[in-house]
Amino acid sequence: MTGMGHGLQTNNPAIGAAFRSALDHQFLIILILAVVLALAWNVIRTIQYRRAVAAGTVDARVLGQWPYPEPPARRLLRIIFGILWVFDGLLQAQSSMPVGLPGSVITPAGSSSPGWVQHLVSVGATIWSDHPVSAAAATVWIQVGIGLFLLVAPRGYWSRTAGAVSAGWGLVVWVFGEAFGGIFGHGSSWLFGSPGAVVLYVVAGVLVALRDSSWETPRLGRGLLRGMGVFFIGMGILQAWPGRGFWAGQAHPTATPGALTAMVDQMAQISQPSVFSSWVRSFGSFDAAHGWAVNLVAVVLLLGIGVCFVSGRRRLLWVGVIAGVVVCLADWVFVQDLGFLGGVGTDPNSMIPMASVFTAGYLAVVRLPVRVEAPAPAATPAAAPTGLLDRVSPSYLVRSLAAIGAMGVVLVGAAPMALASTNPNADPIVTEASDGTPNIVDVPSAPFTLTDQTGRQVSLKSLAGHTVVLTFLDPVCVSDCPLIAQELRVTDQMLGASAANVDLVAVVNNPLYDTTALTTAFDKQEGLDRLPNWAYLTGSLTQLHQVWNEYGVQTEVTPAGAMIAHSDIVYIIDRKGQTREILNSDPGNGSAAGESSFSALLTSQVQHIAHS
Amino acid sequence: VIAATGRRQDRRRISSRSRALYALGAVTLSAGALASCSSPGGTTPGTPVAGAVPSIPLTSSSARSAASWASLAMGHLGDPLNTFWQLFYLSSGTTRWVLATPPGVASNGGLVASVAASGSVLAGFEPSQDLRFSPLAQSTDQGTTWAPGVLPGGLAPVPDSLSTSSGGPELALLRNGGGNVVGSAGDLAEWKAVASERTLAADPSTSVCGIARLTAVTFGAAGAPVVGAACTRGGRPGVFEHVGADWVSVGPSLPGAPGGPTEVIRLLSTPTGAAALVSAGTGSNGKLFAMWSTDSLKSWTVSVGLPLAGETLTSIGATTTGGFVIATTGTDARRSASAVSPSAGGWQDLVPPPAGTSAVVATPDGAFDALIANQSTLDVYTLGSGGWNRMQPLSVPIQYGSSG
Lengths: 612, 404
Description:
By secondary structure, chain A is α+β, with helices and mostly antiparallel strands. Chain A is built from 20 helices and ten strands.
């Protein structure tokens, strides 16, 4: 009934089933890819072996050898962020992600930001809402793929490409998913994760994408630590800034809590094992009682760590890194509550990435790579290897194929996401999730003869030979009916040339406002007067009641300024007058995704019936 | 991926340009990944019309000898979707108000009623949500049954945006532009353009006014359309009568009026001419003038000005004698009420109505009632010799949540 619609729940079973099915199908594709790559490895190795035996050059392969092992700082970043991306990808596989992410994560992230940031965020949220299953599944594979890519490709172009892809995707997520980490919003704080976890993924990705020569001197590490130092000092000053609520705890239980106490309380309420929530609650109680002192410690630590990093002196750098790691871990556990709990957590938040970045900076200063001279060949082979295949070492071959496989995993997600982004219509699953799947029937439709908006008599018989989309609309309805009308108008556009064989028909669904003057006004309001295949039918009250009864349409006059309560229903009638499908057309909360999705669903069903 | 701070849906579609940019980003990322195989790299219900000085409240009433009709907002007034405007009537000789809201249309946007001398009433619904035209309902049996009608646009949110005479014709003031006046022969379905703010402003006879917007419509004694307006120039209120093919300014000068803009707040036809309520001046200098014509708009009797002293108008009612009764709200939220009649000529301060009064209404029998809307309950107080006495609680079956 009108006005009784609702939005999707995060645990919607239809969306959940479609999400699992999409992940299963895509996993199958990835398995096939893995088999193909294994076969490729086997074939290439066989060819290599035969050619090497024939040429007597079994030990002469050089491609895939470097003058020094991977710098420790780079290895740390690559492995930590590789693991983080894989972990984030697995978190994206949580069943609540397809529906929950836009409303619970994306939109709130930008809620306190300026309008232009909210607009950017709404772009991401809208695309996700329009294509919840494909977007959620795509994100799983993109992130798992990037993580695997970083892990399996330690050196060379493959590895640097992995870093670039990591930085690129991180940037997309930071802008559209994290609203720039909230740096343009109110109340940002290092303690809460500002400037966003993913910007650190971007930094790490850029570092991994740098040339090997960048890691040969301590310049890169010092620059990175100085940058982090300035950032820490800035965050310390922001933390100390008066009037932002961080110096206050909570004087008594009914008093307004300070910013940190309020955040910790909020995090403690997230669904999670009791042991974690008890830790967070304990810290919240401590902060409520000693808010001023806690903030003082936070400010001093942030400023102190920043000064250590800016100094560039090895001993102070060591102190800064140790203090930084301890503070990051403490904040991660007691304030950020590990970040990934609650069903819509998308990552472990900012502290692990941050500690990894500055620790890598420290390693880049104190643990420089040592160049190793390659041993001279024992003997010059009779014939030097000339082909690319002949020069590839077995380990490099494995890593290259693994890297190709990881990129394949990324593409298994990226390709459908790119396609979804260019599709202006939401997926039919959105409507099916809220209104159920169409009811498939094959029964004769009840005949009717009514009057259209031009005064012409229209009967179901007169529409024979065309597929008929039949619905029931109140011409003075303020919410659902105008939305359904727009869905029908969009359906007509989506049908394209085949709309010429489809009639869109509505019957008045208001026993008090049923004149052709009203149907004409409604048509004009909704732009339906321009559709040649549109008919809005009315008749005597007796005729209308008969049609409503035969099509199971409920209509109830309610008092005191309420609109008519009525059913939202669409019938698809084939060319022979048989009712083939019945759809619930309640637009629910009237979301754009729901409207667009309904049009897409209706179009596909009409096309299916028209061609059957 | 979120910050720790993170944890409804805009119905507006994102622009195709934004979508294209995002799609471009996603495609570029995919393409980049491919390339890297080879190389790295409504008017809120109850809100007075904006811009008027003072604002014209939609809460209003009209008293005729047979019955009084009042329109006011009820429900959860802070929530537009759960604010429902209601129409009540009180028959002559009775003391109990009756709910008479026409069924079949959501009244969230507002409700306007025009009462003909015969007692027939024409109600119009202000647009709300996705409904952009105004349905109409006409009753000749005190709201027992209603006949539907429709306007070609949305009604202007002012009390006298509709005017009906017995059995037609009708006039309506639409909200588009600065106001468009349309007329119907009586079927409430076919409407023809009568005037617009633009055509009236271009007429030389209106230059003395400097029309800002149209604010009221009615019929003159001879059945000619009469339009009220807000004027940017002071001195004479903007009242214009359609005579032949021309519009004639028929507003009188207002003795003692402060300088500044004027605005016709109410404009009603009477058997011998018209009655109007006009504001002049702005802010604390603003005054209200009532004026009456009994010679087919040739001349007017003008009341003394009622200083508003910065108070806002809460409701405006017409009395059976062609007078007016107003309720105002001070900055301290206290209500005041005043009445004026053609015979007395001056304003009479009434006993301050009870706190929270939505409207002060004239009854068919010449008394005054205060109507207080409290969610789904209407409390009726009657002004007696000892002050305001609570006479009737009226429960209104509001359907919360029915508008989405």
